[in-house]
User: Which sequence fits this backbone?
């Protein structure tokens, strides 16, 4: 966790265009969510959380770990979103969408040879950018 925390704290989101910043965000998130160690850690956390023999303390540690990671990622989403960085629903959407994409690719690559996902990645970034722009317009209109 400490290595991941150091990487997150030192990360910077680059790019002028929203799509560039979203691509940069995916790259930063991939330093954690595309690593085989993450998949192993996820399996352990899921097992601990589901095992009725796990102590309340172990389950609290799992919840704390997740909350701490979410807190560490927040400044990166602020760099991506700029003026609408206070929109927690939007930041959470971007986070769960990105994490799901990266985790899905990690799981798939552990089962079979990874494929070139450049087209899917471009569609993902375009879709996230569309949602961000739509949300920004909605905020301006209200």
Assistant:
């Amino acid at each position: 966790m400490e290595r991941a925390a150091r990487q997150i704290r030192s990360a910077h989101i680059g790019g002028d265009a929203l799509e560039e910043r979203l691509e940069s965000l995916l790259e930063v998130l991939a330093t954690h969510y595309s690593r085989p160690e993450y998949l192993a850690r996820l399996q352990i956390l899921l097992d601990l959380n589901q095992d009725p023999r796990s102590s309340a303390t172990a389950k609290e540690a799992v919840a704390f770990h997740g909350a701490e990671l979410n807190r560490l990622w927040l400044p990166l989403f602020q760099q991506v979103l700029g003026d609408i960085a206070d929109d927690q629903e939007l930041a959470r959407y971007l986070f769960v969408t990105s994490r799901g994409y990266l985790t899905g690719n990690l799981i798939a690559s552990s089962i079979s040879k990874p494929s070139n996902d450049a087209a899917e990645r471009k569609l993902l970034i375009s879709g996230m950018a569309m949602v961000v722009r739509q949300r920004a317009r909605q905020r301006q209109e209200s």
Observations:
- The chain has a mean pLDDT of 87.
